[in-house]
Amino acid sequence: VPVEEAAPVKEAVKTLIVTSIYGLLGVPDTPEREMFTGRMSRESHYKWSLLSILSFRADKIICYTSTDEMQDLERFFYEEHDVSRDALEFRPFALKGSKHFKKIQELRAEIVETEGREMELKQNQRCFEVQYNKFFWMDYHVSLASEPEYDRVYWFDAGLSHTGLFPKMYYSDWVLDDPYVESYRPKSGSDVIAREYYPLGLFNNNF
C-alpha cells in the first residue's frame, strides 16, 4: 500500500502594519498648528481607534509620531491599556524632515500670497506632509533590508476604526446597544465621546 506523503507544514505569515498619529496638528496655539494643517479632535479619535485596531493580531504595528506626543501615547497605550511594546512601537519622525517639506511650504505660501486663502489652509483637515509620507514610510518598510522578518506589510490609517465608516453589523455589541452613540454625532474629540464612538468589532483575526 503506497504511503501518502504528509502535506508540507505552512509557515505562519508574519504581518507588519504601519501607521501614524500626529494629533497636535489641529490644536490652536501650538507651533505645529502654524506650520502644518490638520483636523482638531484627531488626537482622541486616533488613540481610541488604534486601540480598537490592535484587536487585530498583527505581529507588530509601527506608528510614526512627533516627539512631543511620544510620552502621552506611550502612557495611554502601555500604561493605561497594557499594550505590549512588542506589539506596538512608536517611532519619532519630525514632519520638517519630510522629503517634500520645502516644496509644500513654498506652495502653501504662494497660495496665501496670490489667493489670500490663509485661513482656509489653516483649517484644512488634511496634513499634506503626513499624506505624502505614507508612501515613503511604506517604501522603507517593504524593502527586505529594513524588515526582512515580515511577509506582509500594510498601511492602516490610525483613524480607520470609526463607526461612521462601517455598517452597523461591524459595530461592537455595546456600541449598538447604546442609544447615546446612535443619537449623537460628536463634533469634538473628547475622550468621553471617543470611547463610545470609535470601537468596532471588525478588527479581529476572523473577519
Shape: globular
**Physical arrangement of strands within the biggest beta sheet:** 3-2-1-4
Can you summarize the main beta sheet?
4 strands, parallel
- The helix-strand sequence is EHHEHEHHHEHHH
Number of strands: 4
Quaternary status: single chain
Going by helix content, strand content and strand pairing, the class is alpha/beta
Count of individual helical segments: 9
Low-confidence stretches: 174-193
Question: How large is the share of residues in beta strands?
Answer: 5-15%
Distance between the termini: 42 Å
Give Rg in angstroms.
20 Å
Helix percent reads 25-40%
What integer is the average pLDDT?
Answer: 75
Please explain how this structure is put together.
There is one protein chain. This protein has 9 helices and 4 strands; from the N terminus they run βααβαβαααβααα. It has helices at residues 31-35, 42-53, 67-80, 101-115, 118-122, 128-142, 173-176, 179-183, 191-197, and strands at 15-21, 60-65, 88-92, 152-155. The chain is globular and about 75 Å long. By secondary structure, it is an alpha/beta fold. The longest helix has 15 residues, at 101-115. The termini are far apart. The relative contact order is 0.19. β2, α3 and β3 form a beta-alpha-beta unit. It has a 4-stranded parallel sheet, with helices on both faces. The model is unreliable at 174-193 (pLDDT under 50).
